[in-house]
Amino acid sequence: MPVTFEDEKATSFGNVAESYDRVRPGPAPEALDWLVPDGCQVAVDLAAGTGLFTRDLVGRVARVVAVEPDARMREVLARRSPEVDVREGWGEAMPLPDASADAVFVSTAWHWLDPARAVPEIARVLRPGGRLGVIWTTRDRDQDWVAELDLLRLPGVNDQEGGGPRTVEEARAALDLHHAVKLPDGAQFAGQETASFRFSRTVSVDDALSWLASNSGFITASAADRAAALASCREALQRQTGDSSMIEMPMRSWCWRARRSLSQRVRSCEGLVITKTVRWRVSGHH
Length: 286
Known about the structure:
The protein has helices at 5-10, 17-23, 29-35, 54-57, 71-80, 115-125, 144-148, 168-178, 205-213, 216-219, 223-241, 264-282, and strands spanning 42-46, 63-68, 85-88, 101-107, 126-139, 189-204, 246-260. The chain contains twelve helices and seven strands. Helices cover 39% and strands 23% of the residues. Helix 9 packs antiparallel against helix 11 (223-241). The protein has a single domain (5-282), classed as Vaccinia Virus protein VP39 (Rossmann fold, 3-Layer(aba) Sandwich), CATH 3.40.50. The chain is an alpha/beta fold. It has a seven-stranded mixed β-sheet with strand order 3-2-1-4-5-7-6, sandwiched between helices.
């Protein structure tokens, strides 16, 4: 099968794995509180990258399994998180037994999965009643100057069709579309809910630029296009910071969660128990 440009972008992060791990943000703590179910014993971080989300699961969950296709990202993950069970795998083919996890999480990677194949695979790995949680943690574009950073990319530095947004309103609309979770017909999930959590992150201007450069559009751009776009971004950031070398970036974690539906066998057994209980009570037994 030929490698498409989307495939190239999806696996481009390994080229900057060390920088990616150093400058990319982790989630808001409140987002983890909302996503991780009570009593979770086994959690899978799918498309785990270098383990930014994985590390926040450690200590909250008894056993954490990280599944990541890129060997360069897995190497950083395993080195930074030796207590985690790190495995090679894909969202569409996880090296895990049926009904083996209480929760599966996808952090800032849902858009790289093929839902038609990944959602049934996630359902296979989850125990009935288990949780699928999806999260994106990124800059909060509600402030115009933050959204305007999305408008500074040159034609050669873009990861969206049609040349990308041209106004802050288009940037926000593109982000809303990017953060949508649409399950395929017949998906074995129920109780879909969404939430978002704001916070801020103070970083140096240089680290903010490295963070922007860890985007797949920058990674796969030509050196000239990348340098020109980053120069424009530096000017925009320095207009905010003035004489300071640090910048406080508004952040948000966008979250989605759903429950793995009970199997037909489990529902039938529950129905049988309820029926027997009702009959027992109706017959006068207490």
